[in-house]
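Dear H.,

Thanks for agreeing to be a second pair of eyes. The structure we're designing against is below in token form, covering all 83 positions.
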């Protein structure tokens, strides 16, 4: 396999993982919301809006975490004029 095919597989795995995590977090949020109002679990509704909202939050959090981690590393090393 060449490098291009490997990068596509990795991106597909990452997107599948992000989608699965988003479903899980959205479902946990909906369960806690329903339990607060003492509603039965049968009224939980997961739609594209709730999944997309959670996926966007997770994506932004991961990008922010990477920027903080790599920014700290670059600052300690004095790379790219960040001294």
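And this is the sequence the design step returned. I haven't edited it by hand at all.
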């Amino acid at each position: 396999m060449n490098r291009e095919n490997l990068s596509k597989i990795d991106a597909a795995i990452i997107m599948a993982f992000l989608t699965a995590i988003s479903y899980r977090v959205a479902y946990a949020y909906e369960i806690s919301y329903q339990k607060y109002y003492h509603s039965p679990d049968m009224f939980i509704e997961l739609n594209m809006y709730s999944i997309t909202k959670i996926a966007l939050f997770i994506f932004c959090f991961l990008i922010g975490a990477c920027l903080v981690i790599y920014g700290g590393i670059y600052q300690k090393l004095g790379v790219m004029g960040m001294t």
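Two observations from my side: The helical segments are 3-36, 48-77. DSSP finds two helices and no strands in the chain.

Warmly,
E.
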